[in-house]
Specification:
420 residues; alpha/beta; Transcription Regulator spoIIAA; 4 domains; six-stranded mixed β-sheet; five-stranded mixed β-sheet
């Protein structure tokens, strides 16, 4: 979205800076996220030199018209229009001379909140390409959107619609462009990434094609739902030179009764078998997961089952979410809603496990070669970045530089970084 504005002749500035147009790209996955998004719109409206406030993204699709209007946005743009914002805004700010960019249109950066200012024509002409970063360490490549799994608690099908996948050739064009700009790592993203399908081309076929793109050194996946292509991904990972040894596989609950009530497409036994399979094939595999606590009807015993399973499985990254009631989902009408205080208490028990799980995985990494993509060089000369297993790392070399990949054997873990 930011790159699209830059190609159209705008200058992108941080949220809160003086601007003529303020974009709030809102999330609606939880009630808290939705309210934060709407409050950003209200705060932008209250600036001294009030900009045109644009509310875009999932929050537009899910929140009611009354809720959206109460927070003072001048322009409401849904999922289908958010990547055409410059041309949409042109009709609201006719004094701005928008220009068509001469780039390939594919270099999208993730900027959830920003302000944009129009540039004068001379500046725009001289900086059209330079305004878009030509060298970055990592870029998101969205290949799929939408989901029809319709889990009881989830608003995504209502906010994003049925699954849709980008053409493989379009994705490969974007990946080649990122490689040419110096990007070393791409992250493939989607609302339900494992359901990617372009004709007969599936996610594994797309990964196979990306593997052949010169210049891209690492590929990472955002998240994979169990019951899609998880085993094929692990099999591909064993022989890939580029696919990072990290997989985020949402669990949500460790209780079979709740999994059925949620509408999840697997059992606890299925999940455990997959983790065993993956860990056996990739011994040093970073594993992330999501856990949802406090779904209506979650008994004390069901929560204890979840707690026991999370303790037992070798997760390195743990995301915990208290259930958030979303109008339009099946869970909103389910009996047995749990108090906010109890949901927070249960979430706290799980969150206490998060650093312990990461510590255990970090210790397994010690004295084994890992490769870190350096993102920042600190004043003391050390470089920090992320390993393929999605662990933060700090290394010290005389010639270290951002956007380089450094292989080393970590000797210790300080609670945040793997270090030499």
């Amino acid at each position: 979205m930011a790159a699209g504005f830059e190609r159209a002749g705008y200058e992108v500035v941080p949220f809160g800076h003086p601007c003529e147009v303020c974009i709030v790209h809102g999330c609606t996955i939880t009630r808290t996220a939705e309210l934060k998004s709407l409050r950003y719109a209200r705060s932008a409206r209250g600036q001294d030199a009030s900009p045109l406030v644009v509310l875009a993204g999932c929050v537009v699709e899910a929140a009611s018209e009354e809720v959206r209007s109460a927070f003072g946005a001048d322009l409401i743009v849904g999922q289908d229009g958010k990547f055409r914002l410059p041309e949409i805004i042109d009709s609201h700010l006719p004094r701005i001379n928008l220009r068509e960019g001469d780039g390939d249109g594919e270099d999208v950066v993730a900027t959830p909140l920003c302000g944009v200012n129009p540039r004068d024509d001379d500046q725009c002409a001289s900086e059209q390409k330079a305004s878009i970063p030509s060298r970055r360490t990592r870029a998101l490549v969205k290949v799929q959107d939408g989901c029809d799994f319709r889990c009881a608690y989830c608003i995504v099908p209502a906010a994003r619609g049925s699954p849709i996948s980008l053409p493989a050739e379009q994705i490969l064009l974007q990946v080649r462009g990122l490689a040419a700009s110096g990007c070393n790592e791409i992250v493939l993203t989607g609302a339900n990434l494992g359901c990617y399908a372009d004709g007969e081309t599936r996610l594994i076929d797309l990964l196979t094609a990306i593997e052949l793109v010169s210049g891209i050194r690492r590929v990472r996946l955002s998240s994979i739902e169990l019951s899609t292509v998880e085993r094929q991904i692990i099999d591909f990972m064993t022989q890939s030179d580029k696919l990072c040894h990290y997989l985020h596989v949402p669990l949500q609950t460790g209780d079979n009764g709740l999994l059925a009530a949620m509408g999840r497409r697997y059992t606890v036994e299925d999940y455990r078998k997959f983790i065993d399979y993956a860990s056996a094939r990739i011994p040093l595999l970073g594993l992330g997961t999501d856990v949802l606590v406090g779904l209506p009807g979650e008994s004390k015993g069901a929560f204890e089952n979840t707690l026991a399973l999370v303790r037992d499985l070798p997760f390195s990254n743990l995301h915990v979410f208290p259930y958030s009631k979303r109008a339009g989902t099946r869970a909103a009408a389910m009996p047995g809603h749990i108090s906010s205080a109890e949901k927070r208490r249960r979430a706290a028990f799980l969150l206490e496990l998060a650093p312990l799980k990461k510590q255990a995985f970090a210790e397994a990494c010690l004295e084994h070669p890992v490769a870190a993509l350096i993102e920042k060089v600190e004043p003391d000369g050390s470089g920090t970045g992320w390993t393929g297993e999605y662990m933060e790392a700090r290394v010290t070399r005389t010639d270290i530089a951002p956007n380089t990949i450094v292989t080393f054997e970590p000797a210790r873990y300080d609670g945040r970084f793997l270090t030499e």
